[in-house]
Amino acid sequence: MKHLSAALLAALLTASPALAQDAGTITLGFGLGIVAPKDNNGALAGMESNIGNNTRPILTLEYFIRDNIGIELLGAAPFKHDISLAGLGEIGSTKHLPPTLSVNWHIPTGGKLTPFVGLGVNYTKFFEEKSSLGTLKIKESFGLAATLGIDYALNEKAALRADIRYIDIDSDVVLNGANIGKVNIDPLVASVSYVMKF
Q1: For the whole model, what pTM was predicted?
Q2: What count of other Cβ atoms lies within 10 Å of the Cβ of residue 69?
Q3: Which domains does the chain have, with CATH numbers?
Q4: CA-CA distance, 196 to 198, in Å (whole number)?
Q5: H/E run at residue 5
Q6: What is the DSSP string of 147-183?
Q7: Cα angle vertex 45, ends 39, 51, to 5°?
Q8: Phi, psi (5° rounding) for residue 11?
Q9: Any residues with CB less than 8 A from the CB of 61 and at least 6 apart, and which?
Q10: Helix, strand or coil for residue 132?
């Protein structure tokens, strides 16, 4: 029975359909992503800062320049994060947009499961900063991004995707016109999405 179960599992993972990723293919994905900044986000005005998590809808668009190699653009609805300082608690919030451009290698397996890895660059724009301490401004950030994910093909035109990204986000913070430090957000971004092939 164990051998039969193993054979059935192997057949499930390797049987068609597979989501083809040939040169010229375009995929479009819709899903949800959670941005989880690392702990201890740096000192602001001498106090340890903490940036909260947030979950929002995400969108991915990928164009395959070669078989199994795609250029992907990640977009999302604006994320909103609470900002806390040690000893003061929550002192404000901000929204941000984190468009990320990556080159992904989709590792061909011939089956339903296709893992992929990617490396790219992120641009993060902060806006609608609010603080009980005064006028808050968080400056824009450029940084590297790395992705690890997997697609599960539902048919030749659609797949379910799960991935996790590391994004380097470091931004100067200005309060009432004075620079009070830098936040090292450096989040992990975990997402699940439905991907369509065109």
Answers
A1: 0.86
A2: 15
A3: 2-197 (2.40.160.20)
A4: 7
A5: helix 2-14
A6: EEEEEEEEETTEEEEEEEEEE--EEEEEETTEEEEEE
A7: 25
A8: -65, -40
A9: 26, 27, 28, 29, 72, 73, 75
A10: coil
pLDDT digits (tens, 9 = 90+) for 69-126: 999 999 999 999 999 999 899 999 999 999 999 999 999 998 999 999 999 999 999 9
What does the block give as tokens for 106?
């989709």
**Residue 38 token pair:** 């690392």
pLDDT of residue 21: 82
Q: What tokens appear for 121 in the block?
A: 């660059």
pLDDT of residue 170: 95
Residue 39's pLDDT band, with cuts at 50, 70 and 90, is confident
Positions of E strands within 14-88: 26-36, 43-44, 47-51, 54-66, 69-76, 79-85
14 — phi, psi (to 5°)? Answer: -110, -10
- Does the bond joining 57 to the residue before it have cis omega, within 30 degrees of 0? no
